[in-house]
Design goal:
about 230 residues; mainly beta; 4-stranded antiparallel sheet; 10 strands; rod-shaped
């Protein structure tokens, strides 16, 4: 009988270790850092009970992004000021916004409403004799606008009537003479180095016949850009 005791002990130990090997409760616990998509994760170690999985439009710099929602292995490249693409907060290709300001080429033009009818000059010409600066719409149209200003004029708003050195005139082919009664011109740019002038204007002109007003012209919403020589 004494010889049977070691045998029973051996059987007991074998049964214990076999039971331990089959017990799944001793497997490694699932975590948010185990490199496996498990639990209720929507990605590997993210989503569900773990922290949200990163995306390229979540407004956060996460994952391997090099900036917010851009760069890295999954998101689009981050915009730069020399990538040849209008992106980010740029207002033009690689300019504007957080990049250098966009350079807008200067253009010559003159537009207005004459008695609420749209007017656009075919051509604008200007001349500066170092005393007065004159510019006008071309003579190929039946209506013309003329302006005279002092040379070297600063930016600002000026009266066009009873103001020495300033005048505006409206003319219409085969019509009478018009006298400017009121109005202003606003200079928004006078680049004397490049001889470029731009701004806005409005004025009222009246045609008289023997002292009696026979026609009134209201020039409104005027704008211009002109190079003078």
């Amino acid at each position: 009988m004494k010889n049977l005791i070691p045998f029973f002990l051996l059987l007991t130990c074998l049964a214990f270790f076999t039971a331990c090997g089959d017990d799944d409760t001793l497997s490694a616990p699932e975590t948010c850092t185990d490199g496996i998509q498990n639990q209720d994760e929507t990605g590997v170690d993210c989503g569900g009970v773990c922290t949200p999985c990163f995306t390229c439009n979540d407004g956060i710099q996460n994952g391997d992004e090099t900036d917010i929602d851009c760069g890295g292995s999954d998101c689009p490249a981050c915009p730069t000021c020399d990538d040849g693409i209008q992106n980010g907060d740029e207002t033009g290709v690689d300019c504007g916004g957080s990049c250098d300001p966009c350079v807008v080429p200067f253009s010559e033009f003159m537009t207005a409403e004459i008695n609420e009818e749209a007017f656009e000059a075919n051509l604008v010409s200007g001349f500066d004799n170092l005393n007065t600066l004159e510019f006008q719409s071309d003579q190929s149209q039946d209506r013309q606008l003329f302006f005279v200003l002092p040379s070297g004029i600063d930016e600002g708003t000026y009266d066009l009537v009873d103001n020495d050195g300033f005048s505006a005139r409206y003319a219409k082919i085969n019509d009478g003479e018009f006298t400017t009664e009121s109005g202003t011109i606003t200079i928004t740019l006078n680049n004397t180095g490049q001889a470029e002038l731009s701004g806005t204007f409005e004025f009222t002109a009246v045609e008289y016949d023997f002292g009696v007003a026979v026609d009134t012209v209201r020039v409104t919403n005027g704008a211009f850009g002109v190079e003078y020589f």
